[in-house]
Amino acid sequence: MSSGEPDKGQFVSKAIGAEAAATDKFTLYVPNKGRSETEGEPQVELPNWQGWIRRALDMFCKINDGATFFPPARGVYLDQKNNNEEVWEDTAIVYSYIFDWDKFRDRILEVREFVRSFGKETRQASVMFELNGVAYQIEWPYEESD
Predict the structure, then answer these.
(1) Neighbours of 53 (CB within 10 A)
(2) Which of 29, 35, 66, 146 could form a disulfide bond with 128, CB atoms 3.0-4.6 angstroms apart?
(3) Residue 75: left if φ>0, alpha if ψ -120 to 50, beta else—which one?
(4) Pairing of strands 44-45, 68-79
(5) Is residue 105 pLDDT above 70, yes or no?
(6) What element of type H or E holds 75?
(7) How large a percentage of the chain has pLDDT more than 90?
(8) Cis check: omega of the bond before 31, within 30 degrees of 0
(9) Whether the model pTM is above 0.70
(10) Residues facing 91 on adjacent strands
(11) What mean pLDDT do residues 16-31 have?
(12) Start-end of H helices in the chain
């Protein structure tokens, strides 16, 4: 953009007659598989995967006034804790724009509890989430920290 050209966001906002509503986005990845209870066995499908997606949507709706999820995306990763086995899974991508950062900060422990419960109860190797395009990962077993 050359000097003298308007900011692209300002241009679009003015042309359409809209205001920027939020600049922060939290994205959570909810896979349909977890570790088997028997070490060394292949990953197993989660019996209540849709329930976890619904819980994430409900949580973000209450915290950020809304949430959306994309239909499952197909992905693969190497399970380094299981002989580098290729694990193919469907992953729901749940995201929510943060309209009120103070409200989000005040309720961050709910997000932490959800992420940790999901990881532990579904026997995930890790749980991934993003804030504004920066990826974060919690691996299991995790160390408690404040």
Answers:
(1) 18
(2) 29
(3) beta
(4) unpaired
(5) yes
(6) strand 68-79
(7) 65
(8) no
(9) yes
(10) 31, 73
(11) 93
(12) 8-16, 49-64, 101-106, 108-121
Q: How far apart are CA 143 and CA 146, in angstroms?
A: 10
CB contact at 8 A, 97 and 25: yes
In the numeric block, which tokens belong to residue 127? 């749980």
* Residues comprising the chain, all counted: 146
pLDDT in tens, 44-69: 999 999 999 999 999 999 999 999 99
| pLDDT the model gives residue 19 | 87
Q: Characterise 58 by phi-psi region: left (phi > 0), alpha (psi -120 to 50), beta (else).
A: alpha
Which 3 state secondary structure label does DSSP give 81?
coil
State yes or no: pLDDT of 146 exceeds 60. Answer: no
Residue 4 tokens read as 């003298």
